Amino acid sequence: MAVQMSIVNRARQRSRPLLQRALRDCCLTAGRAVRTLGFVLIHRIRPVSPALAPHVEHLWVARGYLPVRWRNMILPDGAMELIINLGDPQNLRALDNPAKHTIFRHSWISGERTAPIVIDEISYVHLVGVRLRVGGAWPFLGIPLREFTDHVVELETIFGREINDLRDQLGEAPDDDSRFDLVEAWLTQRARSRTQPTRSVSYALRIIHGELDAVRIGKIVDTIGISHKHLLREFDRCVGLSPKLFARLCAFQRVIRSVGHTAEVDWADTAATCGYHDQAHLIHEFRAFSGLTPANYLTKRGPFLNYLEVE
Question: How confident is the model at residue 115 (pLDDT cuts 50, 70, 90)?
């Protein structure tokens, strides 16, 4: 279990009471304080049972008080997130038009993304989340995942009163471990009533994850023994992205992980290591998924590599 807390330097003096409260909470949970992006936050992660592990990467909770309004850009990372909000409403903003925004109050799911999203964090944050593996959302939703691509959808439109009942239970739970137990029990019940992703999709995902060079979809369908059209339909249903687009996203995330927190980056070497034709190809793909040049990314990067603070 990981516990993390972060503090905005620029707001330290005016937010001292909130900071003292967060430090106290961190001590009560036997956590360790670390410095990260712009807010006072406690973040906990818990793995799931073996039965859910093929579909769910982990459960998480984030809670705390923001001393100032903080806006962050979240890069596409190949995962879907199911989130239940016990705190203040969250604002989702359009990257190309910050004045356009949508408020999410209770619970939502963020689909596979091909571009960043921008979130305004406001005052009190208390989120309980499920980080789903690629293809892992299908057993819980039973809806083609293409419907969620580049969208954030209120969970009430999918689960109705069921998700509101779960949210009420989470709000009444005495601690984070109890909340994790409730979410895990709900996920287990949902997964029992749904079919699993096909073997062809699972096998194709393993090939894409393990391939450093440009992925040839023809090679995948020949290996699996299905038609190109059938593979595309299965990816629409179980992943939400085409095999080719998902492979490009994997390469982009390979760059993010390869760079990590390195201060000076040899981009030509990184391009070769991560399977790009050359540095120009890497820069083009990096812009496509982040809206930034690799050099601009380095100036905005924080401890969480896919979370960038923006003005």
Answer: very high
Domains in the chain, start-ordered, CATH in brackets?
A: 2-192 (2.60.120.10), 199-310 (1.10.10.60)
Shortest CA distance to 62 belongs to which of 78, 40, 80? 40
Residue at token pair 């406690």? 42
**CA atoms of 93 and 145, how far apart (whole Å):** 22
Confidence of residue 63 (pLDDT cuts 50, 70, 90): confident
- The length of the chain in residues reads 311
Q: Which amino acid is at 137?
A: A
CA separation for the pair 74, 70 (Å, rounded):
13
